[in-house]
Amino acid sequence: MRRAILVGLSVVMLSGCAHLVPDVKPYEREMLADPIMSFSRDPVSDQYLDHVYDVREGARGATTSQGGGCGCN
Amino acid sequence: MAATDRQARPATAASRRRTLRRSASGLVLLLSLTMARAAVLPGDRTDLMYHYYDGGGVQVSGPAVLVRKSAGDNVSVSGRYYVDTVSSASIDVVTTASPYRDRREELGVGVDILNGNSLASLSVIKSTESDYLADTFGLNVTHDLFGGLTTLEMGFSNGKDTVERVHTTFQQGINRYNFRLGVSQVLTRSLLAGVSFEDVAEDGYLNNPYRFARVSGVYFPEIYPGTRDSQALALRLVKGFSSGGRPVSSSVRADYRYYRDNWDIRSNTLGLAYQRYFGDRWLGELHYRYYQQNAASFYSDNFATEMTYMARDKELSTFHSHSLGVKWTWYFAKQRFLFINQASLNLSHDYILFNYDDFTDVRTGQPYSFGANVLQLYLSAWY
Question: Closest Cα of chain B to A60: distance in Å?
Fold first, then answer.
């Protein structure tokens, strides 16, 4: 019974993963090229805003933009 | 500026340190933000920005300039200049010191080199202030896989700071090492995902030479540990939507970051943004951000007795914040004019509300909170 459940779960998981494998052709990437599909549309602006938070918070790192900011507090 | 004024600067060193540890990645990451796309050089562009912050008795403003230009098919060079003019009468200042003014200048140069599916970025950044100096070197590499559907990123930077105290001979150093790993993945023709991890290790004088801790109501200089090691893991998604014949007319962006460090700070950050085109020339954005953290192990609003390490920096306390912002972009030039291919004017406003759980406003005896307005006006041109 346990083996059947494992096999069943494996089939479900693998078939699910099959749908997750990306297959986006180059000619299908028009949307992805638009600026609003970017993690950071305006580097200078996002860098500044990230830094406004950074100087006032304990956390740091793993942001979309890094560097710059203000010597404010 | 009078010496008494300069001795009353409780908040700048830590914030400068944060400024510079970010700069550790600095221009490199700024210039490699296209990692979600196939390996290409970042586009030629210039941004001129004026920024303004007003909150908690602090005003910060100044210009920022970024210029990027390719040199041939495989090399792109860039320069960045940033100025902060600070006028501070923050809660720390008004309770333990006196207001001050200062100015920070940051100059960065970088070069990106494209080789096949890989993009290497080098940067050098120098920041100067009256009592804080920093030099940072950074290297970042991105590599595209699977026909550009997957992008890997690795980065390293090293910063060396010098902490001073004005009108004294005080001088201490900080070494900083940033290690970054990231993956971005095209999931569908309208869905993009990203995961990034960053470890930051610091050693040296991590204190703020101007700030004080409270011990039974009496102020003593803060004492911080000499090392700090942190890890941050962020997940991001961008989903696009089509309508009206446009390939993409709007998008939703969501991100989450978990953070931990060996000072026992844990934090969660959640961000949501909605962007939408209005006609051919206007783009609007609405975004929200929530941030929450617990206090560092050596933080106390008012220590009962002297400890080995003591901090009363509100950035190390338990607090949360909400931020709501809008941004408008006007593409006033969408056709080639002289050497410019496109240009936009951008205006954004964010309001941030900070609520501190265990940082008391000693003037009222109540938990401290404040709101801040953040304005950005900038001109962008692509050529």
Answer: 7
Are A61 and B16 in contact (CB < 8 Å)?
no
Residue B244, number of CB atoms within 10 A of its CB = 7
Sheet strands (E) in chain B: 45-55, 58-70, 75-88, 100-115, 118-129, 132-145, 150-164, 171-188, 191-204, 212-215, 218-221, 227-243, 246-261, 266-278, 282-293, 319-333, 342-361, 366-382
The two structure tokens encoding residue B342: 């496109």
Please determine, for residue B307, whether its predicted confidence score (pLDDT) is greater than 70. Answer: yes
DSSP per-residue letters across B132-149: EEEEEEEEEEEEEEGGGT
**pTM for the full model?**
0.85
User: pLDDT tens-digit profile of B71-85?
Assistant: 999 999 999 999 999
Record: contact B186-A22, CB cut-off 8 A: yes
Looking at residue B205, what is its pLDDT?
95
How many angstroms separate the Cα of B272 from the Cα of each of B211, B289, B326?
Answer: 35, 6, 12
**ipTM of this predicted structure:** 0.86
Q: State the Cα–Cα distance between residues B150 and B140, nearest whole angstrom.
A: 17
Judged by CB atoms closer than 8 Å, whether chains meet at B84 and A58 is answered as no
Q: Which of B245, B227, B365, B225 is nearest to B297 (CA)?
A: B225
The alpha-carbon gap from A4 to the nearest alpha carbon of chain B, in Å, equals: 31
**Residues B267, A54: C-beta atoms closer than 8 Å:** no
What crossing angle do the helices spanning A43-54 and B12-23 adopt, rounded to 10°? 140
B34 three-state secondary structure: helix
Q: Which residues of A touch B352 (CB under 8 A)?
A: 52-53
The answer to whether A59 contacts B293, with C-beta atoms less than 8 Å apart, is yes
pLDDT in tens, A22-35: 788 888 888 898 99
For residue B366, give both structure tokens: 């109540």
Identify which of A28, A43, A60 has the shortest CB distance to residue B33: A43
Q: What is the pLDDT of residues B204-239, one digit of tens each?
A: 999 889 899 999 999 999 999 999 999 999 999 999
- Alpha-carbon torsion B363, B364, B367, B372, what sign? negative
